[in-house]
Amino acid sequence: MNTQRFTDLAGQMMRSALDSWRGGNRLFAVLHAGMGSEFSLKAILCHHNPLLISAPGDRALRFHSLGFGGEKGVKPLEHARTIGMAEAFKDAEVVMQDRMPVTIEAFAPVMEARNGIAHLGHHDPTTAEQVVSTALRVAEAIRHELNTSAADFWCEYIHTFRDLSKFAAMPATPKIGLEQAAEDLARSEAAEAERAARGAVRSTAATAAEAIARVPPWESPLDSDKAASKALKITRRAVVSAALHTTAMRAQRAALGLLKSYGYHSPNVSPYQPVTAHDAVSVKALVARQVEGAFRTTLPTELAFALAEPSSDVVWRPRPYESAGYGTYLFRWEPCPACPAWGDMYGRLEPGVCSDEECNAGGPYCGEHDEGPPTTAHAQAFTCPICCLALDPEQELEAAYMYLDTLYEG
User: Fold this and answer.
1) What is the pLDDT of residues 337-363, one digit of tens each?
2) Residue 10 · residue 139 · CB < 8 Å
3) What are the CA-CA distances from residue 55 to residues 82, 91, 158, 242 (Å)?
4) For the segment 39-63, what is each residue's pLDDT rounded down to a tens digit?
5) Residue 207: pLDDT above 80?
6) Is the per-residue pLDDT at 211 higher than 60?
7) Of 196, 220, 352, 369, which is most buried with the most CB atoms under 10 A?
8) pLDDT digit string (tens) for 258-298?
9) DSSP of 108-174, one letter per residue?
10) Beta-sheet strands, E only, within 199-341
């Protein structure tokens, strides 16, 4: 055993303790917190000398640590005997030189709870929060002493491990994998999309007569087949698009709720979490693709035009690419990664700096660009008006390989 191995085990156990606390299992939280703190104590001792954790009479660890593991009479590491938690804590206090955050008296409940659960399956539940909090403080102090990355040690709990009360607002850890849950959700929402499409078919038939009756008075439906056909077409498209938009928006809200239940939040809020931006894009796109596909295939042929023919009377009419002046936002028409439609990509302008100092300061023009230093456009959000896929943090757009790094010259 060495420092890194003990440190890795300590991190795994402390995160497991927090997982258990988050899920409401206080007994396992206390047990794993106690084990994690013991691994932390032995990690700091091994950092100085592995012999510090060798118990009296040990004939395995101390000889292996000194390079005599292959000699006759030396036992294998599996037979190593190490010091207990209390002795490890006292020795860690010495090597940390007054940087241990708690005393042996304050740490005693951690040892008692850990041993009580391990040997008797019992502990005082009223001390659970005190025990876990104390173990967390010890583990963090030793992590800092060893200069171990906080992101690697605490992972998704890097911003919450100091305050157990924050875990009440966190969703419980789901019992099935995200991939399976996303597939189940996609199938469920696809079935809803099929029902919505069948409902849209019935609605278009029911409103056809009313649409024809609403033709402007100067174009009588009886005198103008063209006007009647146009009114019917507009009505059908409106009904179909509204039905798809409603079911697709609900599906995307369900996808976002699923992601949050697995601990996903905007990467701008918490960069260390179990669900990545790539996972979020995969789940959102899977649900959007299944919903749009199920809706489209359920529509009869005569209504398919409503999803394939953009024109001025639908909300998803394509907008041309427009370059904007400095200090404003940009938008561009981009292919949707989940369905055959095109959606809107929005971005912002970031001022650039010319390598020529005089030009950058407003002096003589350097000749490398037009009328001033260039600015760069960065993607910020994408929305699809057909399947309602929405990618808003920049990290999600990067995960979907959607960029707006176009150079503008202001």
Assistant:
1) 898 888 888 877 666 666 666 666 666
2) yes
3) 4, 13, 34, 73
4) 999 999 999 988 888 888 776 777 7
5) no
6) no
7) 196
8) 888 887 766 554 545 567 788 888 999 999 999 999 998 89
9) HHHHHHHHHHHHHS---GGGHHHHHHHHHHHHHHHHHHTT--HHHHHGGGTTTTT-GGGGGGSPPPP
10) 329-335
> Is 90 exceeded by the pLDDT of residue 134?
yes
> 368: helix, coil or strand?
coil
Q: Is the separation of the CB atoms in 389 and 336 below 8 Å?
A: yes
Q: What is the CA radius of gyration of the chain?
A: 32
Q: What is the C-alpha separation between 332 and 343, in angstroms, rounded?
A: 8
Report pLDDT for 123. Answer: 83
Instruction: Calculate ∠ Cα 323-328-332, nearest 5°.
Output: 40
The percent of residues in the chain predicted with pLDDT above 70, rounded, is 73
Torsion angles phi and psi, residue 381, rounded to 5 = -160, 150
- How buried is 257 (Cβ within 10 angstroms: 0-12 exposed, 13-18 middle, 19+ buried)? exposed
Q: How far apart are the C-alpha atoms of 85 and 29, rounded to whole Å? A: 18
| Distances, alpha carbon 19 to alpha carbons 6, 71, 156, 170, 294, in Å | 20, 43, 10, 11, 37
Instruction: For residue 7, give the amino acid letter.
Output: T
Number of neighbours of residue 164 by Cβ within 10 angstroms: 17
Residue indicated by tokens 């398919």? 304
Yes or no: say if 192 and 251 are a contact pair by the CB < 8 Å rule.
yes
Structure tokens at 379: 């993607």
Of 247, 249, 251, the closest CA to residue 283 belongs to 251
346: which strand partners?
331, 381
| Residue type (1 letter), 28 | F
Q: How far apart are CA 393 and CA 379, in angstroms?
A: 9
pLDDT band at residue 108 under the 50/70/90 scheme: very high
Residue 35 scores a pLDDT above 90: yes
- Measured CA to CA, the distance from residue 286 to residue 129 in angstroms comes to 40
Average pLDDT over residues 105-113: 93
Question: Pick from 398, 354, 400, 351: which is nearest to 377 by CA?
Answer: 351
Element (H, E) at 56: none
Q: In angstroms, rounded to a whole number, what is the distance separating the alpha carbons of residues 286 and 141?
A: 43
Query: Within 10 A of 190 (CB to CB), how many other CB atoms are there?
Result: 21
- What's the CA gap between 197 and 245, in Å, rounded? 11
Cα 117 from Cα 34, distance rounded (Å): 10
Q: Which residue has the higher pLDDT, 10 or 271?
A: 10
